[in-house]
Amino acid sequence: MSFAKFADHMDQQSLLTWRILSVASSLKQPFPEPSITSWALLSLAHFADSAGLPISIKQISAVQENKLGADFEFFVRLHDGNFFALSMQAKRVHLAQRHPVYTELGHPGLAPGTFQYDTLIDHSSQIGSIPIHVLYNGWRRRDPYLPFAHLDDEDRELFGCAAISTHKLRSIREGRGPAAKSNTNKLMHFVDFVFPWSDLFRLEQRSGSATNNAPNAVTSLPPTPSSPRLRGGFGVEEDFSKLAAYLTDSDLQGAASGIISSLPRYVDRAPSDDPPNDPHLPAFALVLGGETRGRYHG
Questions:
Q1: DSSP letters along 21-73, please?
Q2: How far is CA 295 from CA 8, 82, 202, 214, in A?
Q3: φ, ψ for residue 161 (rounded to 5)?
Q4: Are 60 and 73 in contact (CB under 8 A)?
Q5: Which of 109, 192, 197, 284 could form a disulfide with 118, with the two C-beta atoms 3.0–4.6 Å apart?
Q6: Are 177 and 60 in contact (CB under 8 A)?
Q7: Statement: residue 28 has pLDDT above 70
């Protein structure tokens, strides 16, 4: 079982996301987060299905999002019949003055006085998944103070879909105190802990041939605690367990392992309030995309 090609396709979605948001920003046109999510998941689901990969992708409806705190979930069927599960919440970047900012990070949670990321962590604990925030990025400005400014274009664009452990995101926001939370929505506070979301599936596996390259941060960035680096050639189940350890706080009581025995009941449902996938969005993305392979992974 190899996920290298799927990770490559996730890279393509990152590059396309960066380029689309760059155009939208420069033209002062809205391109909302649900639109990005819909076409990216449609493309990934089609790729996984065509390649025969054991990956189920569930886009969460607006009603379910309020209850679960997630926009979408990935379920990977393992050799032993169990699943590795990722529950993800996506946020779109906005350029506020000199800083990229995610204005909705402080979105209210299900319970009074909580935040959406609290709801996501609670949901993940209940089903055994790993909570992840995916940050959609993209801008054309070349100002040296902007995050990733020191990277080449194609490497920087791989952060079009940047992942961060929701546990880490919450600890950063909570650590700055209640009065500072509104100012902790800027990318500058999280940049040392984000990585291209494709790293979630760049697992080093034991096989008779050459193994995939282990996940790693961009070589010109300093190592970060939450960036997954899997080494040692473990099997698939062990690799996902190691990945889960990187993405949850080691001292967190009851942290989910990411391994579950069965899919949640809601996964097979198709709520009528799920937004339809717009067939024009993937075509639009391809027009903007051009060559979508960066140098990050060689």
A1: HHHHHHTT----HHHHHHHHHHHHHHHHHHHT--EEEEEPPHHHHHHH--SEE
A2: 11, 34, 15, 15
A3: -125, 95
A4: yes
A5: 109
A6: no
A7: yes
Strands (E), 94-196: 94-96, 99-101, 130-136, 161-165, 195-196
Rounded to whole angstroms, the Cα distance separating 291 from 249 reads 38
Is residue 78 within 8 A of residue 123, CB to CB? The reply is no
Length of the chain (residues)? 298
Residue whose C-alpha is closest to residue 68's, from 17, 25, 129? 129
pLDDT given at position 223: 35
* Residue 56 confidence class, pLDDT cut points 50, 70, 90: very high
Which runs of E-coded beta strand occur in the chain? 55-59, 72-77, 83-92, 94-96, 99-101, 130-136, 161-165, 195-196, 259-260
Q: Of 230 and 199, which is predicted with more confidence?
A: 199
CA distance 241 to 237: 6
Q: Write out pLDDT tens, residues 268-280.
A: 754 444 444 444 4
Mean pLDDT of 163-192: 80
> Which regions of 157-246 does DSSP assign to beta strands (E)?
161-165, 195-196
Cα separation, 120 vs 127, whole angstroms: 11
Nearest to 61 by CA among 207, 266, 227: 266
Residue 181's Cβ-count burial label (10 Å; 0-12, 13-18, 19+) is: middle
Q: Are 125 and 254 in contact (CB under 8 A)?
A: yes
pTM of the model as a whole: 0.81
Calpha distance 154→114 (Å, rounded): 38
